[in-house]
Amino acid sequence: MLTARDLGLGFAVPALAAAIIVLVLRTKQLRSTTTDRYAASLAIFVGFFLGYRLIPLGPWSPEVDWHWIPYALAGAAIVGPVACGEGLTLCDRILLTLFAAVLLACGIVPTFGDLAPAYPYQFAALATFVLLFALLFEPISERLPGPTTPAILIATGLAAAAILLLSGSLRFMQIALAFVGSLSGVAVVAFRQREINALRGASPLLASLLCGLLLVGRAYSFSSVPTLSYLLVPLAPLTLGLVAVGPAARLSPRWKLTLQIALPLIVLATAVLLGVVAESGGTDEY
Amino acid sequence: MKSLLLALPALCLLTSPFAPPARAADVPLTASNTKVEFVCAHTGDKPDPRKGSFAKLTGTAIVDGTALTSIAVEIETASITTEIDKLTTHLKSPDFFNVRQHPKASFKSTKIVRDKTGIVTVTGNLTLLNETKEISFPATVSADGGLKLNAKFTLDRSQFGMTYGLDKVEKNVSLTIAVDAATK
């Protein structure tokens, strides 16, 4: 199904590029509060974009809705680090993130006639989902630094790839894999620098990619994958909030880590399982 | 008797070699009388060719006497079907036919020429995805009291922007068209 070229250009290159960018920006010479805010967003975006263009998975010049994904992500990659800068009020952060969310929705929500639910609902749902994810995930990643949070996002990206594959599009699955590749680069560096929030400033980008890609994947699909599967995947990383600020935050480190891994994985497994059950039967290989 | 005498010259004119040619007739084309099938294979050692077809199409062929003069067909791409459900779902996605964005594919002939051996070459514009390209294909045509047309040719899908997975699925797709239709 996937060739060595697909995995090399669509996964390994994004991972390598992202890792190099993070390592360079976090060297002693370059490290500052500014590079700390921009490192993850820049690394994930550049890695993703390399994978997207090298295969290629879409054209330079957008012709249809989903072609705008990388360009909307570029906007989110700038907005995220700006929004978590010092001196900004909560209102500033909300407005900036809302701007990125609306930009994404304007670009990628499909406009074809038989879109269900209708365009305004999908537009509002995507913008709201991205806004909430970005605003909620940023403090979660601050409270849970280290490699576990990026690892959970890798699992989330893989679950999104699985749902998109079940939806009937290898292309959208590969776009998700390019994202997973670039996240892997960031996660590998996070294993070396455990005290750092490896995802600082990247929440709008992560939200845009996960929610946007899943919305497009669902809109173009003719499969039986239930809507709940698409919704559960981006909700999974938010369950980390229960470990970051809920009663579980007072548990022993061992139990905390167990819950940090188990909660999102249960949600992701449910999402994928629902999709697999809906699409079971028939021949897998064609 | 007088009127019969008057009608006789007109009857002679109609049956003589100088009679006006027979009027062109429309032949409605539907999925029940027109089959559009394709076969595409994987690249590499295990090609596993897969066959597909379209269940909904409409069109018109114009037959002038025994000659096919024009043919126009519009296909509903969402009616694509194969033997494997998951393949059908995949073919409908933006990886291939992108049927949500491009629900119709169409062909309209611009030139139809019969050679000495009787083989007809149909030339026309095929619109698939966002691209309209001129294509030509040979066909055997019989247009006596209806239309029978059989054609088999290959099409380069990448010419129409269907470029996904060129390293996995052959770019040349074999097309078979079979028409067996009566005039209107």
Low-confidence stretches of chain A: none
Largest sheet of chain B: 11 strands, antiparallel
What structural class do you assign from the helix and strand content of chain B?
Answer: mainly beta
* Rg of Cα set of chain A: 18 Å
What topology, given as strand order, has the largest sheet of chain B? 1-4-5-7-8-9-10-11-2-3-6
Helix percent of chain B reads 10-25%
Radius of gyration of CA atoms of chain B, rounded to a whole number? 21 Å
pLDDT below 50 for ≥5 consecutive residues: which ranges of chain B? 11-16
Mean pLDDT of chain A: 94
Please state the structural category of chain A: mainly alpha
Helix content range of the residues of chain A, please? over 70%
Described by the principal axes of the CA atoms, the overall outline of chain A is: globular
Residue fraction in strands of chain B: over 45%
User: What is the strand tally of chain A?
Assistant: 0
Proportion of β residues of chain A?
Answer: under 5%
Number of strands of chain B: 11
Q: Explain this structure to me?
A:
The complex is a heterodimer of chains A (286) and B (184). With 286 residues, chain A is mainly α. Helix content of chain A is 71%, strand content 0%. Chain A is globular. The model of chain A has no long low-confidence stretch (mean pLDDT 94). Chain B has 184 residues and is mainly beta. Chain B contains two helices and eleven strands. Chain B has helices spanning 2-15, 85-92, and strands at residues 25-30, 34-40, 50-54, 57-64, 67-76, 80-82, 104-114, 120-128, 131-142, 147-156, 172-181. In chain B, strands 1-4-5-7-8-9-10-11-2-3-6 form an eleven-stranded antiparallel beta sheet, with helices on one face. The two termini of chain B are 36 Å apart. The relative contact order of chain B is 0.19. At the A-B interface, helix 7 of A face helix 2 of B.
